[in-house]
């Protein structure tokens, strides 16, 4: 089975089931996508809105329609010539579940004791589930304890700091077979593998998976700006956060107006995570270090993980990343740790420190530093680099050409269920980088009226308001509650500050009713639309397999989950698509119909197949405002830096077109090299050779 031409991600919830997806499949086919890309479909905890808390991997989730509903969905997709790509999570399961209950009943004698990554040295499983004032309940094979003991004494591996998600030992062939048998029997087009960094041996896992699955295979691997997937992994590429960083980056001007010391904030955030919520994991690793005092080993283990330049190394591959972390670490026991890891790169010490480094980096960077370092939050994205502001056109072309040559079937994305803010929020925030003085003056004036007492949250709040405008007090309040607690500065999920929480909760009503806020949001709206259309067309036509996250074929101004899992109104989208199919050319306005037009036309072109990559250069005074490239017989043209363009216009700027006659499939008009004419209706164009 080959890769789909494109995908459309849907989030299954109790209110959006397999039957609901079956009902919208015809819309997706008309839109032009190649495959439905599903959030986890295996049986999960009742009421789950994401599905990563799998409770039974042997069947499709009954709450969504079960195996019967799943089969009906696949039947309908086949009728429409659509593929099915399924998200699976091999790292963990939610507890309790039937296997886990058997372990608690029978202890190490349980058939499933080896399924979970449990440290049995104490003889019992620690369950930190009781209130702080409750007595400890000691049972034959487990102990129920104060919930706060989990972060320091937990003796089973988990997903990050979520005690209810217990890690499974998928490296064991029996566990692999038990957890993959069902999904591998479904005959799907592709698989998306969640959180490979948590696995003991990701490369070994992918090689075993390839023995059973020959379809499209992408992995949720967060790469640094200069990092590549390990060459030994038999996969088609990542799920696209690297492409997201590049596509969004090229629509930013190169500026130092929002500069700061991100790495200082990042380092302190990671250190706090290692010293608090992940202490149990650090201590378990430290017990494996020989020849040094235990507390010294703890310090060395934590320091090395804090200093990782990427999420994890895959020893012996990626040795340079391990060496960098060791070089930056000063603890006396680091030398012993380094020697023992190098001596046995596949041993338990090396394996556990690699599994855990990704937890420290993710929780420290994505879930802490990104909420503390808020100078310019459009850069604070999964896989993003807030210290790297923007991407030149030349660098974008270089990276796109490399993707076409090395990983042409990698997924690309602009919005996902994990992004901190939706693509159109980032596109609007990119406008601020063109008018930094104007924005900072606005922020200062508004802070004088309604400032939040914690400065970093204050900056995040004002950018969020203008970036996601218009939004309700309820949505903004829920977002700021999460942001303030993730930042862990004046409040947190574990230790609440009631006075500060009340201040944050009262803020949306003030900010959202200020006329100057509405006025500034209106100021950046139109150029934000230009960026939105440009980055979407580029993502859909550049190298890779593009994904459209549910609902983002219209404007989407969602913030972090669960805001981005709100229900999608497919009836509105159906009606608009019918009008577009009849030849309607909508205005670029609040309806978002212009974005739907661009998505529809690009996906239709994409189905023909695009190959190769050739940068095209505009000529003239406004040449810097164009990003253009050719693939097969198709040319993509996008406007960038729209505020600067407003001030000077196209001024005889042209885009020389190779070959004979071209037609813009978005407008249906013959193409011209004169950009003022080519882009007079929309700020983007998609050209194909000949008449259409």
UniProtKB/TrEMBL annotation:
Pfam families: Alpha-amylase. One of its GO terms (molecular function) is (1,4)-alpha-D-glucan 1-alpha-D-glucosylmutase activity. The lineage of its organism: Bacteria, Bacillati, Actinomycetota, Actinomycetes, Pseudonocardiales. CDD domains: AmyAc_MTSase. InterPro entries: GH (IPR017853), GH13_cat_dom (IPR006047), Trehalose_TreY (IPR012767). Residues 18-475 form the Glycosyl hydrolase family 13 catalytic domain. GO terms for biological process: alpha-glucan catabolic process; trehalose biosynthetic process. Residues 48-69 are annotated as: Disordered. Residues 56-69 have a biased composition (Basic and acidic residues). This is (1->4)-alpha-D-glucan 1-alpha-D-glucosylmutase.
């Amino acid at each position: 089975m080959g890769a789909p031409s494109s995908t459309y991600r849907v989030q299954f919830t109790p209110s959006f089931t397999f039957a609901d997806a079956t009902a919208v499949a015809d819309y997706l086919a008309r839109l032009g996508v190649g495959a439905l890309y599903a959030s986890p479909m295996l049986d999960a905890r009742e009421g789950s809105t994401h599905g990563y808390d799998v409770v039974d991997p042997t069947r499709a989730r009954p709450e969504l329609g079960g195996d019967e509903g799943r089969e009906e969905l696949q039947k309908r997709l086949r009728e429409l010539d659509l593929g099915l790509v399924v998200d699976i999570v091999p790292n963990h399961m939610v507890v309790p579940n039937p296997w886990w209950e058997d372990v608690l009943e029978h202890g190490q004698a349980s058939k499933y004791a080896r399924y979970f990554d449990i440290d049995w040295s104490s003889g019992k499983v620690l369950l930190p589930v009781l209130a702080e004032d409750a007595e400890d309940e000691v049972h034959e094979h487990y102990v129920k304890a104060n919930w706060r003991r989990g972060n320091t004494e937990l003796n089973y591996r988990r997903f990050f700091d979520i005690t209810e998600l217990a890690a499974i030992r998928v490296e064991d062939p029996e566990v692999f077979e038990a957890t993959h048998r069902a999904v591998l029997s479904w005959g799907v087009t592709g698989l998306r593998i969640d959180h490979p960094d948590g696995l003991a041996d990701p490369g070994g896992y992918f090689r075993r998976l390839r023995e059973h699955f020959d379809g499209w295979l992408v992995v949720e691997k967060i790469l640094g700006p200069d990092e590549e997937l390990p060459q030994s992994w038999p996969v088609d590429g990542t799920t696209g956060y690297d492409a997201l960083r590049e596509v969004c980056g090229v629509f930013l001007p190169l500026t130092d107006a929002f500069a700061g010391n991100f790495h200082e904030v990042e380092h302190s955030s990671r250190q706090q995570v290692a010293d608090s919520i992940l202490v149990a994991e650090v201590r378990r690793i430290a017990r494996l270090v020989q020849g040094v005092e235990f507390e010294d080993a703890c310090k060395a283990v934590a320091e090395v993980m804090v200093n990782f330049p990427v999420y994890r190394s895959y020893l012996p591959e990626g040795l340079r990343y391990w060496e960098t972390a060791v070089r930056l670490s000063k603890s006396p026991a680091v030398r012993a740790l380094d020697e023992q890891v190098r001596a046995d790169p596949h041993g338990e010490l090396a394996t556990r420190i690699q599994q855990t480094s990704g937890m420290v980096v993710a929780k420290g960077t994505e879930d802490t530093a990104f909420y503390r370092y808020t100078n310019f939050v459009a850069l604070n994205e999964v896989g993003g680099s807030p210290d790297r502001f923007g991407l030149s056109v030349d660098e974008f072309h270089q990276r796109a050409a490399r993707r076409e040559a090395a990983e042409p079937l990698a997924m690309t994305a602009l919005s996902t269920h994990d992004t901190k803010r939706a693509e159109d929020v980032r596109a609007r925030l990119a406008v601020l980088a063109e008018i930094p003085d104007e924005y900072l003056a606005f922020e200062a004036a508004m802070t004088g009226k309604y400032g939040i007492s914690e400065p970093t949250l204050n900056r995040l709040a004002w950018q969020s308001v203008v970036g996601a405008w218009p939004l309700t007090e309820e949505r903004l309040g829920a977002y700021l509650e999460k942001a303030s607690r993730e930042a862990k500065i004046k409040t947190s999920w574990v230790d609440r500050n009631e006075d500060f929480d009340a201040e944050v909760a009262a803020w949306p009503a003030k900010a959202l009713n200020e006329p100057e806020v509405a006025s500034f949001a209106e100021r950046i709206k139109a150029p934000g639309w230009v960026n939105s259309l440009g980055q979407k067309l580029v993502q859909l036509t550049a190298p890779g397999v593009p994904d459209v996250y549910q609902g983002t074929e219209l404007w989407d101004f969602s913030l972090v989950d669960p805001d981005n899992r709100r229900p999608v109104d497919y009836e509105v989208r159906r009606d608009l698509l019918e009008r577009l199919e009849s030849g309607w050319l909508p205005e670029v306005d609040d309806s978002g119909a212009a974005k739907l037009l661009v998505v529809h036309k690009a996906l239709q072109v994409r189905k023909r197949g695009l190959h190769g990559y050739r940068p095209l250069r505009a000529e003239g005074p406004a040449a810097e405002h164009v990003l253009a490239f050719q693939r097969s017989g198709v040319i993509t043209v996008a406007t960038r830096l729209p505020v600067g363009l407003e001030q000077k216009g196209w001024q005889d700027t042209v885009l020389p077109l190779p070959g004979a006659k071209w037609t813009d499939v978005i407008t249906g008009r013959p193409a011209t090299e004169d950009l003022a004419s080519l882009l007079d209706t929309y700020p983007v164009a998609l050209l194909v050779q000949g008449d259409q």
